[in-house]
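INTERNAL AUDIT FORM
Audit reference: QA-55
Scope: verify that the stored structure record matches its stored sequence.
Auditor: D.O.
Record contents follow.
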Amino acid sequence: MLTNHLRRDRRLAGSGRLAIVAAVISLALTSCTAVSAQDDSSPSSTGSNTGSSTGSTSGRPSKSGSTKGGPPGAADGVLPDHTSAYDTSLPGVTKLDPALREAVQKAETAMKADGITMQVTTGWRSKKYQEELMEKAIRKYGSKKKAKEYVADPDESHHVTGHAVDIGPTDADYWLIRHGNRYGLCQTLSNEIWHFELVTTPRGTCPPMTGPKG
């Protein structure tokens, strides 16, 4: 009888130990699963970098060419070198007053026949672009009063409204000064031989030039 009791106690003790071991293993598996799930839900360093480069525009150029919080870009009217008046994919050209743009295109074609390659150095500008030009002029000349002799305030600039273009190089400027009125184009600022506006009818007389307007 005593022997039977001892055997039964041993079996019970063994079963208890097995139950404890099973519980420990189950708890360990549960902890590992939780940790693994937590790792999967947190972006890795690679995933985070990929996301910032493709999904965020902060500090990077946007598709429009402008940098958020940065300097003006193509969307603000900044033009690359050798821009033609026919480059209507560029905001600085396409946002010009249509009549002005057409007149400049006709002048460019006529100039080309005379062996002169014309370029639009600046056309339409956003207020942001104009403000930056004013800030640079103030730093250069030491005061806003002096700066306004060369750059207009955004609310006064004919570039911001799309009614002015700056043309280069100088041989193109001189050609326009002589022949621009054929297309209604005139130099309007006395201190800027490159600044032209549509201010007369084709083959009309250009009005007197004024002071700086930028």
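Auditor finding: record pair retrieved intact. The radius of gyration is 36 Å.
Action required: none
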